[in-house]
């Protein structure tokens, strides 16, 4: 076998092995982070987040750009103590 071809094959194999090892580390690190978050976040917090995401999905795309301003206004007026339960758009 030619020395150049042997060098190219060894560099290729080392590169592929490195990619495999790095991707394996990324996968298992992600699984570890998910496991840790699931153990630390309480069920009530998870339910609250799920309700929040459900409410955002119900708003639709047309009104979605108003949501940050509404949240900021409620947070400012109530000094962080208020919580938005639902938002209903009234047709005029």
TrEMBL record:
Keyword Cytoplasm included in the entry's annotation: no
Primary localization: membrane
GO molecular function, one term: sodium ion transmembrane transporter activity
Cellular compartment(s): Cell membrane
Protein's GO biological process: sodium ion export across plasma membrane
GO cellular component: a single term: plasma membrane
UniProt keyword list: Cell membrane, Membrane, Transmembrane, Transmembrane helix
Parts of the chain that traverse the membrane: 12-37
Superkingdom in the source lineage: Bacteria
Stored InterPro entries: Na_pump_deCOase
Protein's name in the database: Oxaloacetate decarboxylase
């Amino acid at each position: 076998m030619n020395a150049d071809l042997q060098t190219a094959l060894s560099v290729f194999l080392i590169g592929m092995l490195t990619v495999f090892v790095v991707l394996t580390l990324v996968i298992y690190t992600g699984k570890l982070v998910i496991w840790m978050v699931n153990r630390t976040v309480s069920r009530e917090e998870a339910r609250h987040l799920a309700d929040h995401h459900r409410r955002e999905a119900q708003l639709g795309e047309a009104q979605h750009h108003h949501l940050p301003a509404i949240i900021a206004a409620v947070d400012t007026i109530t000094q962080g103590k208020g919580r938005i339960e639902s938002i209903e758009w009234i047709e005029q």
